[in-house]
Amino acid sequence: MSNPCAAAVAPRGPRQRAPTAGTDEKRERILRAAERLFHEQGYARTTLDQVAAALGVSKPFVYYYFHNKQELFERLSWTPAVACFTVLDGDEHAHLPAQQQVALALRRLIATTIAHYPAAFFSYREPQAYRPEYLAAQQALARHFYDRLCVLLERARAAGTLQFNETRITALAACSIPGFLYSWYRPDGRLSADAVVAELSALAWRVVGLSPADLPVDAVAAAG
Hints:
Elements: H1 6-9, H2 21-41, H3 48-55, H4 59-65, H5 69-85, H6 98-115, H7 122-125, H8 132-158, H9 167-175, H10 193-208, H11 217-222
């Protein structure tokens, strides 16, 4: 997908020289430390001093790669946002019937959300922490996803394979299921990540009128 929102979350004047393997590794270390602290303490209670202390470095080291705490938070949130809202991009499943493409999209959305734990949950937990520019970019990504999903839903309804009334409401209802993960999902919970994906996918499919029995086994497995 050509990202129309990149400018809204692009770094504001990178502090380091052209990225190298070494600088990329250091940036990643900072992001991972910040992600853990944001998850454990929340945005407001996390400071760059704490991020630096967690890494055993000075605060100027963090400032060399990131301008401030908000940039860190938005960077961490943007990666899962793009991953989730572009699950319908690409044409590897375009040959499948519309209802199967819908099923795969919902499963991929759920699996991608879980795969990006905990950063994928930040926007649900603390929406007030983002700049308006960031929120607008995220909303544009979401519209991109829902526009494509609604087209598939309407094709499936026209083909007689799905039954529902309001297309957009149906899409929003099915995709709201992974949105609630932030309040209860734990990687070390009773069910494995794969088991949670399977359970939630079946629920999302039910919202749009599908059941696993409607889908070929290879199509379900293709969602990952």
